[in-house]
């Protein structure tokens, strides 16, 4: 049908293969009792940042700094990295898209995980390339399976560390080994959207590996622990050569004024970050423990969310999600991730977590 419309005739064939990305539930905030579907921070940003944003709004008639200089300086200082190797974007989604735009094309292959972030195949198809899925092992990213999928056509490998939606991590030793073995003509993207939540000492966010592996790109976001999801700020870190390419093709003013300001300020809020990490550990452990006691299979999650497999016979995952929705509690259905028996639950505010656990307990009791 679409092919009969003359102006759609020459669309890249891959675009017809894309299913639109469906985000975690967005309903009227006032009626939502618990939003545990998008791995957002449960905390609002400190009021001193809100106040400085308000002051800045009067300059909205002017374009923001297209090079995000102040933000890059703040990132470089905070993460002890080189400013000229940073590119900022309208969320890390923006950086991921730029990477595909620059490094893949028709007839190339992009490797991602079969249980990975759904945006990777979307941007792969948009660039005209073909996604190749490497199977996870017990819901963990498998470097072995990724390597087996490498062909002459492979241009990019994407994986998130920690992985979304499974929460698994790859430790530094394995990461270094993988980077040594992967051919240097392939761009390796480690998406560190949830890196700040990891407490395992053997974990590396990969920023220190960029020097040794110039084909490595690390992407990061301000949408998760930094609680700026609505502002849309992310960044990438790589060799100067790769960053120059991404800088050339990004939108001229791809990070807005208030996003730049808020992001550079939130990095200095050590108390806020520590509070977020502590809260995450406490409630992730509680949710895991209680769901396990109810009989669910809960996978070790290193981010701010848990992958839960419903192995109960008394009730289906669909029925669980439908019940929770009636109570205005939203967790993430993983149907689109080909995991219909699973769901993903983010760590929310104390009240949200308790309510979720209470309602799910009530439902199971009723279903026995
Ligand atoms: C693994 C992963 N990467 C990237 C993103 C996108 O983040 P951003 O808000 O920076 O675009 C998400 C969002 O959920 C994610 O889970």
Q: For the report, how would you describe the main beta sheet?
A: 7 strands, mixed
* Estimated helix fraction: 25-40%
- Topology, number of strands: 12
CATH superfamily (homologous) name of the largest domain: Type I PLP-dependent aspartate aminotransferase-like (Major domain)
What's the level 1 CATH class of the largest domain? Alpha Beta
The CATH topology of the largest domain is: Aspartate Aminotransferase, domain 2
* Rg on CA atoms, Å: 21 Å
| Low-pLDDT sequence parts | none
Please summarize what this structure is.
The protein has 368 residues and is of the alpha/beta class. It is 35% helix and 15% strand. It contains 11 helices and 12 strands.
Polypeptide structure, described:
It is a single chain. This protein is of the alpha/beta class and 368 residues long. It has two domains: 22-44 and 270-367, Aspartate Aminotransferase, domain 1, CATH 3.90.1150.10; 47-266, 3-Layer(aba) Sandwich (Aspartate Aminotransferase, domain 2). It contains eleven helices and twelve strands. Strands 2-8-7-6-5-3-4 form a seven-stranded mixed sheet, sandwiched between helices. It has a five-stranded mixed sheet with strand order 1-11-12-10-9, with helices on both faces. The longest helix is centred in the C-terminal third of the chain and has 25 residues, at 270-294. It is globular. The mean pLDDT is 95. The site of pyridoxal-5'-phosphate has 13 residues, from helix 3.
């Amino acid at each position: 049908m679409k092919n009969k419309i003359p102006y759609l005739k020459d669309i890249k064939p891959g675009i017809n293969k894309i299913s639109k990305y469906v985000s975690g539930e967005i309903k009227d905030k006032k009626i939502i009792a618990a939003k545990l579907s998008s791995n957002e921070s449960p905390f609002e940003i400190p009021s001193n940042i809100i106040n400085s944003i308000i002051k800045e709004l009067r300059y909205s008639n002017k374009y923001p700094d297209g090079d995000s200089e102040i933000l890059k300086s703040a990132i470089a200082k905070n993460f002890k990295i080189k400013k000229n190797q940073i590119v900022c974007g309208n969320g890390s989604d923006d950086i991921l898209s730029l990477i595909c735009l620059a490094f893949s094309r028709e007839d190339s292959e992009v490797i991602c995980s079969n249980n990975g972030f759904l945006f990777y195949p979307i941007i792969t198809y948009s660039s005209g390339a073909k996604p190749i899925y490497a199977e996870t092992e017990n819901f963990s990213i498998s470097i072995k399976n990724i390597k087996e999928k490498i062909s002459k056509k492979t241009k990019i490998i994407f994986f998130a560390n920690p992985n979304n939606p499974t929460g698994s991590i790859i430790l530094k030793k394995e990461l270094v080994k993988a980077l040594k073995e992967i051919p240097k003509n392939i761009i390796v993207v480690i998406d560190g959207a949830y890196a700040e939540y990891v407490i395992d000492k053997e974990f590396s966010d990969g920023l220190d590996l960029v020097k040794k592996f110039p084909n490595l790109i690390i992407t990061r976001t301000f949408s998760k622990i930094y609680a700026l999801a609505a502002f849309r700020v992310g960044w990438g870190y790589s060799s100067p050569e790769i960053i120059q390419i991404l800088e050339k093709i990004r939108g001229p003013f791809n990070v807005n004024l208030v996003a730049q300001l808020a992001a550079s300020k939130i990095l200095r809020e050590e108390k806020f970050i520590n509070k977020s990490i502590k809260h995450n550990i406490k409630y992730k452990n509680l949710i895991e423990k209680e769901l396990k006691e109810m009989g669910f299979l809960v996978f070790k999650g290193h981010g701010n969310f848990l992958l839960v497999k419903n192995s109960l016979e008394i009730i289906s995952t669909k029925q669980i999600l439908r019940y929770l929705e009636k109570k205005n509690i939203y967790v993430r259905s993983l149907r689109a991730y080909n995991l219909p028996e699973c769901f993903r639950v983010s760590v929310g505010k104390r009240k949200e977590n308790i309510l979720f656990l209470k309602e799910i307990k009530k439902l199971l009791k009723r279903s026995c």
